[in-house]
Fold:
Amino acid sequence: DGSGAFANGEGATITVLGDATATGIGGIGATGNSKGLVTVEGNVTARADNLDDFEYEYDCAAVDAWDDGEVIVKGNVTATGSKSIGVRAAYSSVTVFGHVTGVFGGAYASVSASIEIGGDVSSTDESGFGVKAVDNCDIGVNGDVVSGGTGVVLYRDPSEDGPSQVTIDGAITAPVYIKIGSGTLECDEYDLDSSIIVGYRIYTNDS
Structure:
């Protein structure tokens, strides 16, 4: 377990000139916590296994950011372990210039977090997701989203801040296209509204 690069606390900064790798069970490749900043010039690879008995829904990801932390990856991010997540951010931000790959999920943002991905996002687990945004988050993907489960998941706790937004420049390929709250949407269930965003299909529901 452990982290390949871990910056914790305001003013804590780590720059990895090559790749960041964590090969142990539950290992995290790069973590930015409590205003810490990690920049990886190469790729991030980690097992990032997620254990069923952990107190959070997902206990680790190949790239992890918490509590105003930030992680920037100039290359690709790959999570290989059981039920692993490629990128996770909670009240923080993650930027990946390349592709993101996980087993259970690709990218997961919660609690006013932001994730920007320059390439594609993919996951393979049939019960998993490509990207997931919970409670006032923004996820942007410049490439495609491919998942063995649900392509895009959005959820909002009524007691929390505003709704989340996911923007995908490419295509979504998944058995379940989009899930918002308790409702699902197929590829053709979209609106076009140039006053909101020009040239994009817009998927919304009230659940």
